[in-house]
Amino acid sequence: MSEYGEQLNYIDGEWRPARDGKGIAVLSPSTEEQIATLADSGSEDVEEAVSAAFRAFAGGRGEWARRPARERLGLLEGVLDGLLSRAEGIGLMEARDVGHPLRLAQLFHAAGAPEFARAAIRLVDVDNTEALPLTEAPTLSANFVLREPVGVCGVIVPWNGAYFLSLYKVFSALVTGNAVVLKPPPEASLSCLEIARALAAGGLPSGNLNVVTGGTEPGAALAANSKVDRISFTGSTTTGRRVLESSAADFKRVTLELGGKSPVILCADVDLDRCVDGVLWGAFLQSGQVCAAGSRLLVPEERYDEVVERIVERASVLAVGDPLDPTTDIGPLISSQHRERVERYITAGLEEGAKLVLGGGRPTQHTRGYFVEPTIFAGVDHTMTIAQEEIFGPVLSIIRYDGLAQAIEIANGTAYGLTASVWSRSNRQALEVARQLQAGTVWINEHNILNPHAPFGGYKHSGVGREFGRRGLEEFCELKHVHVDLSTGPAEKPYGLLFGGK
Ligand code: NAD
To answer: What is the three-class DSSP state of 182?
Structure first.
């Protein structure tokens, strides 16, 4: 029996194998050994899960949907406490399953994610009474807005932040009264199933959270199911486009959090002592498998040589290796196919004339596991493939610019617009640049820091809609305007427009 055994789907309060009995072998990306088996679900499993959520929601008359928001929040916070108390074990599971270095897996993912979700769901409007200004024309009325659950929410997440994003999305959907079907990625489902176990133990009524594991087939079936009212999707731009297309038939509410090619702009006055580690944190955190990864470093002509030297020198200290070894900084990539994809980009960089100044290969000390060295290209032209497409690996492209106007043009010159950062000693100058960038988040003298209160999402091909903060919660709600007549009768109303003098 493998380490985490046979994992089943969670549907209508029961643990069930896939209808056709198929399973997926889960391999650890650092050892290539099987550590678990997942249910390889098909569309019938998705239909069962969606039907369970549909029954639980019952058109908004379900017990969970009608429970006061304050009580829902209380139950969910208790479940987050429980998950937090198990952060060490869940972090270990993430390190084995996804290859995140233990430090990152335990502190950011396993311990950070429940606290992030807690801060986000506490923004729920527990009184649910947003009063609007008294309205006098065309007739005297009091008006207010109710936030109601949308209904059955399909949640689809990628492997690079599966636990973090599932916690945020599932708990946001639940605190606002929805019922959920979660489809985690096959590469990172183990911790997501722990969320279902915790919610079941914490007393969430059956059917309000269902988890169906597997790959493309259950994801596509969920996005196409007509009983699903809303899809909250995070993943690649290619898949996001398919999800949007299949959601169109039923006018599903959709948020899409997609890929990125984030620029990191160093201004000419930049303090390198303050920014070098930040640039590398932006580029190589989680082996660059981060949607917001700062994979394009834009450097002014006059500081170019100095910056390349400092960046390469500092990146050389990063240790690639076993995620369970506490001295490891950079773990493996998620799979052998993904490593091959990243390596194809490295080859493209060389073929198109970029200069390899660090890494570029597989570390020789590891015979097993999907490792790639931190890789840096200098002399990158912004039109090259490695400067335009999302690589999602430990590959940084350094691009030269001449004047901030050109830097802004290069920064905005990809199909993406997720995040960006600007580094300068002058906040005034950095703000001026930030205003001109097409990106949903701009960090000044920082990169890759998420904030549960701040809206997060993309311009252009990086997505549709926003997560986190009040706006993120609102995406899980329908807004209902209620108008209460305060006039003394028909004479004070605009009915004359219809009846004339009759
Ligand atoms: P992916 O698009 O391949 O898969 C994402 C999820 O969609 C997985 O659960 C997958 O099984 C499922 N899926 C696959 N085909 C589907 C289909 N036809 N219909 C519905 N669902 C389907 O992405 P990935 O490789 O798992 O993740 C990496 C991508 O995610 C990168 O592009 C990264 O930038 C992006 N990402 C974005 C954010 C953000 O907040 N913007 C955050 C994390 C990751």
So the answer is: strand
Atom of ligand 1 nearest to the CA of 291: 34
- 235 Cβ partners below 8 Å, 6+ apart? 156, 157, 158, 243, 257, 258
> If we measure between CA atoms, which residue out of 341, 342, 314 comes closest to residue 329?
314
Q: Which atom of ligand 1 is nearest to the CA of 158?
A: 26
Tell whether the torsion through CA atoms of 121, 126, 156 and 411 is positive or negative. Answer: negative
- Helix (H/G/I), strand (E/B), else coil: 41: coil
Residues 6+ apart with CB under 8 A from 419: 260, 262, 291, 292, 294, 439, 440, 441, 442, 443, 447, 448
The number of beta carbons lying within 10 Å of the beta carbon of residue 408 is: 22
Helices (H) and strands (E) in the chain, counts: 18, 20
For residue 120, which amino acid is it?
A
| Ligand 1 centroid from CA 233, angstroms | 8
Q: Mean pLDDT over all residues of the chain?
A: 97
pTM for this model (two decimals): 0.97
Which residues are catalytic, by number?
Answer: 257, 291
Query: How far apart, in whole angstroms, are the C-alpha atoms of residue 60 and residue 432?
Result: 47
Q: Are 332 and 371 spatial neighbours (Cβ–Cβ below 8 Å)? A: yes
State pLDDT tens for residues 29-70: 999 999 999 999 999 999 999 999 999 999 999 999 999 999
pLDDT at 369: 97
Return the residue whose CA atom lies nearest to atom 43 of ligand 1. Answer: 291
